[in-house]
Recover the amino acids of this structure.
């Protein structure tokens, strides 16, 4: 029944499906590992039990999310051999060592200290336990560094040559790793991970503040999370703008698709806020736009000329509608995060951060926003690179394995069934864990009966030995 399907399109759909499941877990665990290190450090510094209680609450959630991220990542690696063997053969001399370095440095570091972080505090003591937690956090950041170096090289390849077999051969490893888009992509992704985690922690804290289950613990985590959102959201907007300018320089066609610019604009390009891209007719229908604002944002000049997709052959254009809308979802959520951060600053200034019900409801609603923004940004990046796997050098249509459509479709269906069952159950378990924040300890008030007058609770009474003598 799948004989008439396109094997390349099915292989792309399979990789997109698996990477979408995978990326949400590292995006969460990168930020959560750093949050755990901060909580552990604050407990060592201040000796306040609330930090250790929050550490114990979130470390279990981290362990589950980390495990799900590892499992979902392993599956992706096999697809390089099953569905994309030509790409693996041609680009393997460059990306193979980089992915190997990720395993030898980041994964081994995380694996070495993860058990100590989760179970070893009583054996190694608080200082070494903090060090282990810090090393796990460092490991997640190193892992992100190597993986983003691989992806960035595919986006903006540098430091390579070609051998007589048509393979990419590294000539300068520094240029390969620190390719033109790598610093921007790394900063943008790490900030996205921190924002994603802050929104989840803030959403959980707000949920428990609304339910009044553990106001002391929930208030502390909510305050820390909203502080993180207020700080990181504006930084992320500036980092995204810098990343966009870098993309304009090295991948201008992707920017044309993101902006919906089918036509060139010699006297300043408009910023199209909304519309319906029609790639077949090379136009945006029902466009709502602001004249010349795109030129101002991208080139800091209202009248700066901007080339459009009319300068690009049809077969080299990415799917414009997908890139156009995923970019707007990402940007829209970014400004919503900024609004949440500003709202939290206002309530913090007024002393109502942990009592403002509308802020708490908004924080709960925004809890999943980081995951959606990460997925939208990933779609923008990867679909916008099409029709290439290695931008400008290797077409996607030339990268796939000699495999028939029915085989790819069968494995895709199996992936969908297994993933929704396994990771759906895992996600449900994570939500159950987040909902089980233990109640704050009840303050000790002594064991004397509470009376309406005459005796203060907790003060010694001559009748405490069990004979209440008429009371």
């Amino acid at each position: 029944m799948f004989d008439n399907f396109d094997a390349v399109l099915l292989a792309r759909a399979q990789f997109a499906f698996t990477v979408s499941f995978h990326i949400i877990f590292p995006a969460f665990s990168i930020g959560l590992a750093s949050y755990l290190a901060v909580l552990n450090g604050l407990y060592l510094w201040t000796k306040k039990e609330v930090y250790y209680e929050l550490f114990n609450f979130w470390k279990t959630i981290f362990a589950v999310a980390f495990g799900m991220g590892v499992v979902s990542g392993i599956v992706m690696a096999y697809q390089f051999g099953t569905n994309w063997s030509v790409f693996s053969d041609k680009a393997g001399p460059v990306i193979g060592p980089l992915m190997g370095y990720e395993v030898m440095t980041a994964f081994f570091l995380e694996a070495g200290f993860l058990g100590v972080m989760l179970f070893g505090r009583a054996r190694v003591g608080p200082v070494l336990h903090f060090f282990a937690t810090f090393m796990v956090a460092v490991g997640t950041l190193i892992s992100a560094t190597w993986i983003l170096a691989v992806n960035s090289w595919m986006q903006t390849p540098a430091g390579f040559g070609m051998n007589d077999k048509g393979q990419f051969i590294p000539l300068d490893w520094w240029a390969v790793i620190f390719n033109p888009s790598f610093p921007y992509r790394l900063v943008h992704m790490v900030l996205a991970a921190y924002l994603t985690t802050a929104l989840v922690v803030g959403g959980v804290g707000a949920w428990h503040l609304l339910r009044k289950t553990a106001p002391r613990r929930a208030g502390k985590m909510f305050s820390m999370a909203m502080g993180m959102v207020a700080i990181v959201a504006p930084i992320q907007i500036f980092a995204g703008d810098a990343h966009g300018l870098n993309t304009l320089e090295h991948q201008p066609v992707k920017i044309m698709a993101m902006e919906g610019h089918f036509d060139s604009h010699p006297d300043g390009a408009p910023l199209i806020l909304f519309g319906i891209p029609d790639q077949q007719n090379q136009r945006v229908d029902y466009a709502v736009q602001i004249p010349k604002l795109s030129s101002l944002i991208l080139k800091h000049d209202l009248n700066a000329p901007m080339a459009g997709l009319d300068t690009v052959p049809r077969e080299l254009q990415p799917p414009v509608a997908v890139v156009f809308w995923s970019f707007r979802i990402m940007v829209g959520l970014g400004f919503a995060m900024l609004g949440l951060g500003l709202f939290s600053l206002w309530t913090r200034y007024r002393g109502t951060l942990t009592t403002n019900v509308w802020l708490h409801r908004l924080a709960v609603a925004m809890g999943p926003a980081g995951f959606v923004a990460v997925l939208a940004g990933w779609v923008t990046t990867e679909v916008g690179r099409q029709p290439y796997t290695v931008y400008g050098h290797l077409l996607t249509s030339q990268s796939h394995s000699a495999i028939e459509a029915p085989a790819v479709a069968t494995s895709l269906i199996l992936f969908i069934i297994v993933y929704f069952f396994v990771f759906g159950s895992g996600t449900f378990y994570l939500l159950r864990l987040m909902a089980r924040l233990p109640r704050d300890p009840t303050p000790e008030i002594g064991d004397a009966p509470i009376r309406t007058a005459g005796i203060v609770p907790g003060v010694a009474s001559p009748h405490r030995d069990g004979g209440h003598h008429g009371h």
Summary: The chain has 14 helices and six strands.
